[in-house]
alcohol dehydrogenase
Amino acid sequence: MSATAGQVIKCKAAVAWEAGKPLVIEEVEVAPPQKMEVRIKILYTSLCHTDVYFWEAKAQDSVFPRILGHEAAGIVESVGEGVTEVAAGDHVLPVFTGECGECAHCKSTESNMCSLLRINTERGVMIGDQKSRFSINGKPIYHFLGTSTFSEYTVLHVGCVAKINPLAPLDKVCVLSCGISAGLGATLNVAKPFKGSSVAVFGLGAVGLGAAEGARLAGASRVIGVDLNTARFEEAKKFGVTEFVNPKDYSKPVQEVIAEMTDGGVDRSVECTGNINAMISAFECVHDGWGVAVLVGVPHKDAVFKTHPVNFLNERTLKGTFFGNYKPRSGLPSVVEMYMNKELEVEKFITHTVPFAEINKAFELMLKGEGLRCVIRME
Ligand code: NAD
Ligand code: ZN
Ligand code: ZN
C-alpha cells in the first residue's frame, strides 16, 4: 500500500477558471478515493479536441472552475472500498466512458453505452456522493468527463479505469485512451469495411487518422481524406490516406465530388470533425445500396442533422459511436496489445511534447491546427 493511501494529497493541477482563459497551474487538494473509486498518479496526458470544446464553452455548456483532460496514462496510487479490479502500482488508462460490468449495455456485445458510467459532459462531481474530490482552500474544483487528467493525481470510478500491460510505455499509449481508439474502433467495430473497399475519412486530426489506420488494417484499397486544412494532407500520407479532397477547392458539395471519384459513392465513411455539414456530407457520400457512414465528431450543442429521407430509402446506413464502440475495461487493453505487437503504430500520432508547466501551448497548437497529438509530461 502506498504511504499516501487514505490521505489528502496536495499536488499540481491545471485549473480552467473561466471559459477560454489560459489554464492556471495551482496547488490542489485531492481527497482519497471513496467506495468503488481509484486514485491515479497521472504521468502523461494529451489534449483531445473535446477538451478544447468544453474549455472554450462556445458550442458546449460547461462548468467552471474545472480540471479538464481525459486522454492520459498513469499508475494507481490507492483504491477505495470495494475495488478489487485494480491495485496500487497497476498501470492504467483512464477513459471518459465507463464499464460497470452489470448493466444491460455492459452485458450486450453490441453496446459500450454503460447505463451507470456513459459519457456525461455536464457532471462535475463523482457519482457516488455527488461531491468533487478536488479543492483549493476548501472550495470545490469540478471534474470533467469523470477523468480530469490535467492533474498530477485524480480520482475516477473504477469502471472508467482500464488496466493495461505493465510493459507498455505510458508516454506513448496515453494517446490510446481517447482519440486514436475512438477513430480506430469507429472503422473496425462500427463501419467494418470489407477488404478492397473505399473509405472516406472526414477530418484528418488524430481521431480521423486513427480511423484511417482502421481502414488500412481492414484492407481497404482506397482511403480518401477530407479536410479544410491542406497542411493535414502531407502528414496523412503516413497513415495510408491515398487521396485527398479539400472541400474549399470545389464549387459543388463534397459529397458530389466523392460520388464522382468513386462511381457513385464510397463503401464506408467516418466523420471525425464535429462539424454538422461534414456529418451530412459524410452520410450523403456513401454508395446507395450498401454504404455505411459513422459519426464520431462531437457536434455543436444546437446542431441539427438534415438530409432527405430518400437517402435512407436508397439503402444507406448512418451510425454513430463513442470511443469506437470499445468497452473501456474489457476492450481497450486489446488496443494496447495491437501497439505492443506492432500492428498499430502510435508514435506517428505524437507530434509534440511539452512539460506540464506549458500545457497552454498544447491548446494553442490545436487551435492553430498544427500537429496531431501533443503529449503533456507531468514530471
Ligand atoms: P482535430 O482538431 O485534431 O482534428 C479535426 C480535423 O477536422 C481538423 O484537421 C480540421 O481541419 C478538420 N475539419 C474541421 N471542420 C471540417 C469540415 N467541415 N470538413 C472537413 N474537415 C474539417 O480534432 P480531434 O482531436 O482529431 O477530434 C476530432 C473530433 O472527434 C472532435 O469533434 C472531437 O470532439 C471528436 N471526438 C469524438 C470521440 C468519440 O468517442 N466520439 C472521441 C474523441 C474525439
Ligand atoms: Zn477525447
Ligand atoms: Zn454498465
